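tool_log.txt
---
The assistant was asked to compare two proteins side by side. It first ran the structure predictor on the initial sequence, then on the second. Raw inputs and outputs are pasted verbatim so the downstream comparison step can read them without reformatting.
(1)
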Amino acid sequence: MTTTTETPHVNRWLVAIMGTVLQLVLGTIYAWSFFQKPMMTYGGWDNQQVAWIFSLSICFLGLAAAMGGVLLPKFGPRKLAIAGALLYALGWVIGGFALTTKNLPMLYIGFGVIGGIGLGLGYVTPVATAAKWFPDKKGFITGMVVMGFGFGALLMSKLIGPMIIDMCKTDGVVAWPTVFYYIAIVLGIPGLIAASIMQNPPAGYAPPGWHGSAGAAADSHDASLTPGDCIKSSTFALMWFIFFCNITAGIMFIGFQSPLIQDLFKLSDPTMDVAALAAAGGTLIAISSIFNGVGRFFWGGLSDKIGRVQAFRLILGSQFIVFLLMTQVTSPMIFGVLVCYVLLCYGGGFGTAPSFVLTVFGSKVMGVVYGVLLTAWAMGGVVGPQIAAYIKDNFKEGAANTTFLVGAGFLLAGVLVSLLLSNKQFAKKA
């Protein structure tokens, strides 16, 4: 039962825009590959050790999102969103403190676990809340809100990160703990402002001039349908698996796209120094993050027209071909283009999933079911980066191609399973 007493008198577009801003702040986690090599150098750690920082943050993002979906009806979106913004900023603060002594376990707990919980609570809230305000534009608006998360890497890799690193550099040496402290402030303030705007629409809300035709399917489910009915169903299991496959394949590149393209540039031009290589990696993060963001908006809107399942089949199937093509690519530029397409589809999965849940299970259970679906993100956040890190540390020859083939395997599995799904509503069986 909802206990919140939030006033309903707010413009729905303000909720959507502030939800997008909050997602933009949280999405800066996707620029982690910008920090991958510097953290290895600073702490004397290997790929897998540093990758666990990112893996843990994504793992606890997914787990906390599931918890957030359950807590959302009880505490309301504003409290949950504020908690998420605070915990994510706190993760950066604890991470900075851990770096002062190069304490890797504390970095795991602070940035990975605590920061990850903040990410999860903050992520699920604006998605579920905005969807309630826009029953007439489900795919469009959820795609728009999660688009902000995709753009977060651009914000970090090309603006916040370089600016703060330059501020904290003395005689060429970067004070990494101070970098983390400043990032906490820069992200925390707008995150809290955006979070404070989150609120549910009043009971029985309908947009002006809307009579239910565009979203009738979302509200015509069995009134006795419970979140447990949905989560225990084979339909949910199939949705979870294809979502997991898309995430696992894509997140391999999010965590390692910068090192991967740096390796290709190093092979094509051995004269490039460390700074030039890092700049090239940062540029790829920035550009691909645009595709990650646009993909959420594009595929979410397209799924309104062609159906959620068909959208996922195209997302998975087209990437399978791209991953195979990557095994033959030696040009950094072509590689960058292909990575951008992968990120377009990776973001597309997140843009389509919320409206998929709404269409199949209904708005009544959306918050809880969507939150649990995001445990696929938690699992993919561990599996994808750790596979890529293990291959990079242990397969010096052909490491990249091995990674691409493994990713292609996940995508093929997702395509095959998607053939078992349809756009039909879930019907509870007696």
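(2)
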Amino acid sequence: MTSVVLEEIPDRVSLAVDISNCRGNCIGCHSPFLRQDIGEELTPGVIDSLAADNFGVNCFLFLGEGRDPSALLDLARHVRSLGLDAALYTGRETVEPAFWEAFDYIKLGPYRSECGPLDSRTTNQRLYHVAGGRREDITSRFWRK
């Protein structure tokens, strides 16, 4: 499933794409159906078509990783070759160095209901902006002042 979202990545109009074969098992997951192998395969051609059909989008957000990290990294690089930012929401606590090189934004951490989502000051999840080899935690941008 795809949708254009305005609040997932600050200051970006993101095309969010659900990635199936989730390796996580978060209690209270909002999309448990994504643990299954479902949907159409995401390829560079599909990304090209989605980008062309969604004028004004400046970020491509992968909601999940699937089970093929190499393919995901290749897709992120393809997204960036189109002039779009590449973003990843993962439920893992950490990612390999190659992910920090391939993505402009990475959200880390499994959903924990007792901690709340990104807009909660007690969240365990973190959203990072990656630029110039630097990782900036921008989670607080979701919190109301």
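---
observation on (2): The mean pLDDT is 92. The longest helix spans residues 69-81.
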